[in-house]
Amino acid sequence: MDEKYFAQKIERKWQQRWNETGAFKVSKEDSKQKFYCLEMLPYPSGRLHMGHVRNYSIGDAISWYKRLKGFNVIHPIGWDSFGQPAEQAAIKQGVNPRDWTEDNIDQMRKQLQALGIGYDWSREVAAHRPDYYKFDQWFFLKMLEMGLAYRKDSEVNWCPKCETTLSNEQASGGACWRCGFQVEKSTRPQWFLKITEYAEQLLSDMDEIEEGWPENVLTMQRNWIGRSDGARVRFAVGGSDSSIEVFTTRIDTIYGANAIVVAPNHPIVFEFEDGLSEDIKAKIEEIRAEQALPVDYGVEVEKSGVDTGKTAINPFSGEELPIWVGNYVLMSYGTGAVMSVPAHDSRDHEFAVRYGLPIKAVVKPENDDAELPFSEYGVLVDSGDFSGLASKDAKERMASLAESEGFGAASTTFRLRDWGISRQRFWGAPIPIVYCQTCGEIGVPFEDLPVELPESAPFTGVGESPLAKVPEFYETNCPRCGEAARRETDTMDTFVDSCWYYFRYLDPKNENAPFSVDEAAYWMPVDLYIGGIDHAVMHLLYTRFWTKVMRDIGLVEFHEPVTRLLTQGMVVGESFYSKERECYVTADEVEISRAASGKIEKATLRETGGPVRLAVEKMGKSKLNGVDPDDMIAKYGSDAVRLFVMFAAPVENELVWQESGIEGAVRFLQRVWRFVFKWRDAVADSSADSSVEESAASRKLRQKTHQTIRKISESFENGQFNTPVASLMELSNAMHDFGVEPESATDSELFAVKESIKSLLLLMAPYAPHTSEELWAEVTGTDGILASGARYPEFDPEIAKDDEIEIPVQVNGKLRSRIYAAPGTDNSELERLALADEKIGEYTEGKEIRVIVVPNRLVNIVVKG
RNA sequence: GCCGGAGUGGCGAAAUUGGUAUACGCACCAGACUCAAAAUCUGGCGGGCUUUGCGCCCAUGACGGUUCGAGUCCGUCCUCCGGCACCA
User: Fold this and answer.
1) CA-to-C1' distance for A739 and B44, Å?
2) CA atom of A778 to C1′ atom of B16, Å
3) For a 10 Å CB count at each end of chain A, is N or C smaller?
4) In what order do the strands lie in the sheet with A565-568?
5) CB A651, CB A715: distance < 8 Å
6) What is the pLDDT of residues A610-652, one digit of tens each?
7) CB contact at 8 A, A79 and A105
8) Nearest nucleotide (C1') to alpha carbon of A247
9) Residue-wise pLDDT tens digits, A142-153
C-alpha cells in the first residue's frame, strides 16, 4: 500500500468492501443486546447539505461505537419523499414528480455512500412508494374505525388569484407567497386526527422521557399542549332561555367581572344577530373579517369590540353584565367566551379602559395595594361569602359551589388542537375515503389498499388539487352499495408519513401489516434519535401521538417511541457583504487583515478595497456562504470532513464552517497515518507481550493509551462527541513524542506502540472509519476492523493509574505550591508533605492554621490572622 | 409579554459536576529544514506588574452572597439566542 495518505482512494475502497460484505446489515438476534440509532430521514431535494452531513456523522459515530461495544446496532435510512418541492418541479419544469423524486433519491444515496455512513441499505424506505403509503392509509382507516379520524368544516388559507390553498407558511403576512395577493380564509371540509384525545397522555408520559430528552424540547411540547386548569361557568342570558358558558382559570375573580366578552363567531351572536342594530351588526362583521385574516406575528392588535346591548347574569353575584363581542376572544380556544375582569387581567383591563367600563378590584395582595391590573394570587375582597379567602382556596370552593348549584364545574382546557391532515395536493398519500350519495363517507376496504396515485395529473399550480382533475382517479364505485361514487381527492399531510417510518425500517417488505409486532418488540424503542431542533414540536409530537395509537391498536406495548433525543445545532457559514457593491461576495474576493494577535482588523474587497461586513449566517445560495459536501469530500476526504464536524462544536451548538478547521482534521489524520507506517514493520515482526519489563517511555505511553480509552468511553456514555476527538489528538501527540525509534525499540516498547496504535485506530473508527479500517488492516494483517470482528478496547485501571499525581497546595484558597504523591496517599501524609513545602512554610510560619485535604485532589491551608 | 437556554483567550471550545481555569484544535508570532516555497518539525501564545524568582496581582457578562475553596451553587441585574404569542 501507498505510504502517502490519499483519502479518496482508501475511502472508495472501504465503501466498496462494506457494500460487498453487507457490513452494516443486521437482523434480530435475541441473544444480543440491540441498539437503535436513528437519524431524521431527509427530504430528497437532490443535494445533501452540511446539516445532513452533521446529522449522519453523529449517528454513524455512535453506531460505530455501539457496534464495537458488541451491540446489535440497527442504523437505517429512508426518504421523506412526499411534499411540495416535487410538485413545484412538476409545475415549473413539467417533470413527473415521481421521476424527479426517484432521481433525487439516487443522487443523494450516492452522496451518503461517498460519505461512508454505515447504513443498512436493505431497509431503505421511501414515503412516496405505494408499498409504504399503503400503510399510511391503513393507519388512517384504523383511526377512522376507532373514531380518531373525522371530517369537519375548517378554515384554510385561500388565494383567490391562484385559486389554491396555501399553508400557513405560504400565507405569512396575509399575502400569497407566489403572487402577493391578499389571502382569504375559506371554509371547506377537511379530515382531522383526534390528537387532543391524547393531550393528557402526551403531557404526563413526558415523565418517562424526561431523562433522555433535552429540556427545551420538553418545554416546547408542554407549552404547545398547553394544559390549563380552571373552571367553566354558565351565565344565563337576560330575557331568554339561552346561556353563555365561559372558561376561566381565575374563577376567584368572578365578583370583579364587568362584562361577558364573546368571539364574533360565537353561536350566541348568531342567535342575537336578527335583533341587533345595523351599526352593531356592521361592527361584528368587521371583527369577523379581522379575525379571518392570517395572524401577523409580532404585531400587537389593538383591542376592540361592540356592546350587543344584551345582558347576562353573574350566577355568583346575581349582577347583570353587558354582553360584548370582542376581537381578542377566539372561538377556537376554551368556550369562545370569557368573563371580563379588568382589575385582574391585562387584556380585559386594556379593553375596559378603551371603552370606559367599570373596573372593580376583588383580589388584594397580602399587604399593600397593588397597581391594576393585578393578576397574581391574593386575598378576596368584595366577593360575597368568599371575601377573606385566599385565591387558591376560593378557586376550589367556588368551583364546587358552581358544580353543586349546576351552573359550572372545574375544567381543564388544552391549547392543542386536532391535527388537520387534508392537503389539496397531488404529491401525498391519498386519503382512502369514498363519498357515496346514499351511504355517505365510506372508508376504502383494507383489501383494496393502496389507493394509488395516478401516473400523472395536470400540474397547473392553480385551482384545486390536481387529483380533482383526474376522473380516472376520483370516479369510482361505493365499496358498500356499488353505486357510482367519488373518491376523496385530498392527500395527507406529509407529517403523517414521518410518524412511523422508523417502525417500517424494522420490517420494510411486509405486505400485510405496517411492521411485524415481534420485530418492533425487539428493536424498539429507538435508543437514540438525532435531528434538528426545528422538529421539536410538530414531528416529535405527532410521532409520540402515533405511537400511543399504535399501542391502542395492539402493535406495540410501550408508550414512548424514543428514549433519547439529540437535537443538533445548525451548520452556518461565514458570509461577506460588500457595502460598495451592495451584495454578498465570495471569500476569495475578500482581503482580511489581522492584527498581530490574529484578531480581524478589517475586511476589504480585493479589487477596490471597499469595506466588507463579515457575518456568520445560515448557509444559503444568495449569501454565497454555502458549502457543498461533495466539494469538501473531493478536497479533503470524507473522514476529515466527518472528524471536523464532530470536533468543531458540541452537537447541540451551532457549528461555524471554517475551512482552516478542516485542514486541522486532515493534519491529524496524516499524523496518525505517518506514525503507523513508521512503525508498521517493526511492530508486525514483534511478538512481545505485556509481560516484559517496561521502560519509562513504554510505561508512559501505555498509561496514556489506557487513560484515553477510559476517557473516550466516558465521554461517549455522557453524550459528548467533540471531546473524544481532543483525547485522540492527545494520544496521537503522546505517540508522536514517544522518543524511541523503531530500529532501536525494545520488546516492551514495541508492545506499547502496537497497543497504542491498535487502540487509537479502534477509538478513532467512529470518526474516521475509512482511515481506521485501512490502517488496522496494515497493522494487523487482517481485512480491517469490521471483518476481523474487533471489539472496542478495554482499559486496565492499573495501567491507567498515574504513578504520581500533582497535588496543588493552596493557602486560603490561593494556589501557592504543588506537591507530588502517589495516588491514594492518605490525608495525613498529604498534609505533612504540604506543610513541609518550603514555599508554604513562608505563609504558615508561626500562624494558627487549619488544613483541608481532599484526597487525590488538593490541600488547602487556612491561615488565620 | 410568557416560557426556555446561554454568556470562559483573537476564534471553535475544555474543565473529573464545588477542588490546579483556558485541555484539544484553529489563527497568529518566532525558529529549524529548504536556493525558495509548500509540507513537516521545534518553541511561544489570557492581561498586567516584574527586582526575570516560573514570583506577584487581575481575569470565566456585572454586582453581591454561601463556602476553607465558586466558571460551577444562591440572589439581583445586563446582554444575546431560541420557542410561543390576544390561550381567558
Assistant:
1) 22
2) 36
3) C
4) A72-74, A34-39, A528-532, A565-568
5) no
6) 888 777 888 877 788 888 999 999 999 999 999 999 999 999 9
7) yes
8) B88
9) 999 999 999 998
DSSP alpha helices (H): ranges in A384-500?
391-405, 471-474, 494-497
Among the residues of A205-300, which ranges form H helices?
206-209, 215-225, 267-272, 278-292
| Confidence at residue A865, expressed as pLDDT on a 0 to 100 scale | 60
pLDDT at residue number A598 = 64
| Å separating the CA of residue A216 from the C1' of nucleotide B17 | 21
Q: From A80, A227, A297, A224, select the one nearest A537 (Cα to Cα).
A: A224
Q: Identify the band that residue A1 occupies on the pLDDT scale cut at 50, 70 and 90.
A: very low
By C-alpha to C1' distance, B28 is nearest to: A598
Ranges A49-58, A428-437, A577-586: which has the least confidence: A577-586
- The identity of residue A700, as a single letter, is K
Q: What is the largest CA-CA distance in chain A?
A: 108
Residue A596 confidence class, pLDDT cut points 50, 70, 90? low
* Nucleotide nearest the Cα atom of A644 (by C1'): B25
**Minimum CA–C1' distance nucleotide for A815:** B20
**What is the CA A298 to C1' B55 distance in angstroms?**
59
pLDDT score at A167: 63
Task: Report the nucleotide nearest the CA of residue A347, measured to C1'.
Answer: B86
User: Which residues face A234 on adjacent strands?
Assistant: A245
The pLDDT tens digits of the residues spanning A539-550 come to 999 999 999 999
Residue nearest to nucleotide B15 (CA to C1'): A723
Q: Which pLDDT belongs to residue A375?
A: 85
The spacing between the Cα labelled CA in A767 and the C1' in B69, in angstroms, equals 39
**DSSP 3-state of A438:** coil
Chain Cα centroid distance, residue A812: 47
CB-contacted nucleotides of strand B (7 Å): 3-5, 10-17, 19-21, 23-29, 39-42, 47, 55-57, 68-70, 82-88
* CA of residue A655 to C1' of nucleotide B57, angstroms: 37
- Read off the C-alpha cell for A535: 422538529
pLDDT at A300: 65
Q: Supply the Cα-derived Rg of chain A in whole angstroms.
A: 34
The nucleotide closest to A733 (CA, C1' atoms):
B24
Nearest nt to the CA of A300 via C1' is: B86
Distance from residue A606 (CA) to nucleotide B19 (C1'), in Å?
Answer: 52
Concatenating the DSSP letter of every residue in A695-743 gives PHHHHHHHHHHHHHHHHHHHHHHHT--SHHHHHHHHHHHHHHT----GG
- Give the pLDDT confidence score for residue A172 in this predicted structure: 59
Q: How confident is the model at residue A606 (pLDDT cuts 50, 70, 90)?
A: confident
Distance A562 CA to B35 C1' (A): 65
Q: What is the mean pLDDT of residues A170-195?
A: 76
d(CA A228, CA A334): 10
Number of residues written out for chain A: 865
Of the candidates A97, A103, A94, A93, which has an alpha carbon nearest to the alpha carbon of residue A47? A103
Specify the nucleotide whose C1' lies closest to residue A219 (CA): B4
- Residue A615 has which C-alpha cell? 457575518
Distance in angstroms, CA of A422 to C1' of B82?
Answer: 30
A2 pLDDT above the threshold of 60: no
Which amino acid residue lies closest to nucleotide B5, measuring CA to C1'? A216
Q: A169 pLDDT exceeds 60?
A: no
Q: Is the pLDDT of residue A701 over 90?
A: yes
Closest-lying nucleotide for A249 based on CA to C1': B88
**Burial category of A307 from C-beta neighbours within 10 Å (exposed 0-12, middle 13-18, buried 19 and up):** middle
From the CA of A805 to the C1' of B46: give the distance in Å. Answer: 26
Residue A483 in contact with residue A19, Cβ under 8 Å? no
Rounded Cα distance, A643 and A632, in Å: 12
